[in-house]
Amino acid sequence: MTRNKLLALFTPAVIVIAIDQWSKWVVRTTPELHRYDIIEEWLMFYYTKNDGMALGIDIFDTYIVSLISITATIGIVAYLLYTIKQSPISYLLLMGLVIGGALGNIIDRLTMAYVGGYGGLLDGHVVDFIFFKLELFDRTVFPYIFNVADIAISVSIISLLIFNKKFFPDDEEESETEEESPGTPVNSLIPKKEE
Q: Which of 58, 59, 66, 175 would you call most buried, defined as having the most Cβ atoms within 10 angstroms of its Cβ?
């Protein structure tokens, strides 16, 4: 059973890493895709290099962001391996997406500075290229550029928030069910008198 759970955790991670790194390489090495409309004024490829955190948050130096990312990912993987026996497969599949997304971006942080010739091991910028423009009442409400790794993390977190009761049933509900359906009646345990 643990083998199946390990597969459930690491298979999505490997798939996300492969698709993420391949798509980043294709966009990065194909100049025509650096600015490419997929659906005009709504969805496009817009190649950028993000040296900060998610959603363009830029409050730490790149190497500190890299260290935070690596430390957080190691912590998540360690926790998941520690609790793997109690974890449902569906939860592990979604957490595999988180691990894959995190590792996809960490690979950029470890390698892109060398590839681009602008820094060392932890100085790499994350490659972002998917620009989804959402406007409401002539105002842009989603001006972010992201990548496949970010999509995997977002899908996983949103799914966990929406279906959290399914993955983690309430302990109170379980105890109420046990009280409502008792096991062997007490009367059956009392020996009957012989007549």
A: 66
